[in-house]
């Protein structure tokens, strides 16, 4: 019998999702969630080429369809008779660039659905009595934008700050399940290309240690999932290559 537990990863086909999956492969089974089925299938075939001994399941799901998320996830677990889930990492997120005056209420609903509420619905399944016993750790992706304002980033800032508040509240309610989040500075992922080289270079230059990599983020996510972090809950870790301590050096 396979005794490895499962880790659920949302935003699993992102650079951070892939970097984390690569680290987890030897130790855990994986349930990968993301919006696009063919990208999930390609990601799994790449991961299987690296390590074929781990069981990798996937589910394509649009987190903006929030009322369906909990039921769809629970039906998936029932269908494949999966009970032994020990962790959730919520990487899925969007960062629309919109000044306040241009935001519509649907934009606010959407960013909250994807960045926070989809994970809330998944957690509500994982704390049902048949799963709760195995659950150990939940880790969210916040952002340094939860701590500093940025032009046309108000929805992103608010959604990530909400994650950090949720983590505090949930850690109290869910103990001994540990709930933590990390708040990265610039991580050089595919999604950053939309901002253009200029923005990325300028922003990166403010980081004492330069911009981060998806692997840097996977390292701390892995740590927070693991037993090495067994006495840590309710926390936000700023992982920003020295961006925030350098804020006054203009
Ligand atoms: N890149 C950075 O500099 C940086 C910094 C701080 C925090 N973050 C956070 O890290 C996470 C990953 O960021 P990234 O830069 O790799 O971005 P990304 O756009 O590459 O990844 C986001 C992931 O979310 C998934 N997703 C988007 N909409 C979805 C939906 N409706 N339903 C289901 N899944 C959906 C995408 O498919 C993708 O896999 C995000 O939460 C982001 O806010 C990124």
Can you give a write-up of this model?
With 250 residues, the protein is α/β, with parallel strands linked by helices. It has one domain (6-241): NAD(P)-binding Rossmann-like Domain (Rossmann fold, 3-Layer(aba) Sandwich). It is built from 8 helices and 7 strands, in the order E-H-E-H-E-H-E-H-H-E-H-E-H-H-E. The chain has helices at residues 15-24, 37-50, 66-79, 105-126, 129-132, 154-174, 196-205, 214-225; strands spanning 6-10, 29-34, 56-60, 85-90, 137-141, 178-184, 236-239. Strands 3-2-1-4-5-6-7 form a 7-stranded parallel sheet, with helices on both faces. Helix 6 (154-174) links the parallel strand 5 and strand 6 (178-184). Helix 1 crosses helix 8, helix 3 (66-79) packs parallel to helix 4 and helix 4 packs parallel to helix 6 (154-174). It is globular, with a radius of gyration of 18 Å. The protein starts with 5 loop residues before the first strand and ends in an 11-residue tail after the last strand. The protein binds nicotinamide-adenine-dinucleotide (NAD).
- Molecular shape: globular
Average residue-wise pLDDT? 96
Largest sheet: 7 strands, parallel
Please tell me how large the radius of gyration is: 18 Å
Poorly predicted residue ranges: none
Please identify which CATH superfamily we are dealing with. Answer: NAD(P)-binding Rossmann-like Domain
List cofactors, ions and other ligands. Answer: nicotinamide-adenine-dinucleotide
N-to-C span? 58 Å
- Strand order, main sheet: write it out: 3-2-1-4-5-6-7
If classified by CATH, what would the architecture be? 3-Layer(aba) Sandwich
The name of the CATH topology is: Rossmann fold
Structural class: alpha/beta
Name of the level-1 CATH class: Alpha Beta
Tally of individual helices? 8
Which percent bin holds the helix content?
A: 40-55%
Total strands: the figure is 7
Number of domains: 1
